[in-house]
Each structure stands twice: as C-alpha cells, then as structure tokens.
Amino acid sequence: MWLPANGTDHETRKRSNMDLHERSIIAAQGYLELGMFRDVWRELQSLPEAMLGCAEVLELSVLSLMGEGRWGEALEIARRLRDLRPKDPSGFIHEAYCLHELGRTREALDTLLNGPESLMEKAVYFYNAACYRAQLGEVKDAVKMLGVAFEMDGSLRRSAKYDPDLVSLKDKL
Prior knowledge:
Elements: H1 10-33, H2 37-45, H3 55-67, H4 71-84, H5 89-101, H6 105-113, H7 123-135, H8 139-152, H9 156-162
Helix pairs in contact: 1-2, 1-3, 2-3, 3-4, 3-5, 4-5, 5-6, 5-7, 6-7, 7-8
C-alpha cells in the first residue's frame, strides 16, 4: 500500500485525531477524579467545538463546575445534558443538586420527582431526595427514601452519618 510522504493517509489521520480526542476525555475524567478542575478545562478546551455539546463532555463540564462550586453555570449545563438525554437520570440528578446548592431545595426535589423512571434505578436519587425532604422538614418521607437508598447501596449509610443535610435525622439513621 502506498502512503503519502508523511506516512499517513486521510483515514489514519482521522483515527489519530479521534484517539487524541478520546485521550483528552479520559485525561479530563482523571483530572476530575483528582479535583484538578483547571486541568479538566484544559483538556476539554482542546476538543473540537463539535464535541463540546456531546453528552460525555457536558457531563464532565457539569461535574467540574460542581466541584468548583460554580452552581449557576453547572445548572445551565446540567439542563442542557437533561434536554440532550431526557431518559438518562444524570442530568436530572445534577440539575437537582445544583438547585439545592443554590437554595432552591423545593425546586430540586420537584426536579427529581418529575424526572424519568430511570431515576428509580439509582440509589443517589433516593438519597438526594431524602436530603432535600429532610431540609424541607418532610422527615417521615425523608426516612423512607433513605431506607430505599440504603437497601440499594449500603455504603450510603456511612455518608449519611456525616451529611449536613441529614442532621435532623441523626437519631433515625
């Protein structure tokens, strides 16, 4: 097979660019896990503009903004993610969390309660809804939702002991 003088053809360059973009996304995920948000943004900025609106990149963006405490910006992107994937629970969970952090806890709870059925498969849905209900003084419902969350994921029981949103439920945990 003949190759151009630089040793690549169009398909090889295309694959190489995709590999580079995949590496940037994987690197951004790693930086996110380490809390290195500036590096997350550097990796995401290296992606072509057409990729910035894809669900995987939007989710990395919203998680990075949340990690930085940039709740308003994170809320906007969470809503874009939710609109892009209306049956996927992640956009709804992120949107609700941002609303709660912005002091809009009733709206956060409503976002979860009116989300897709796929939320019911996520322990974090029940856990976060319990947190929001506890903050709203709906203790009985909060305890029920926590029970479901703990059944689905026992490790959440440890988190609940230290969660400031659940202080009112300490004697019920």
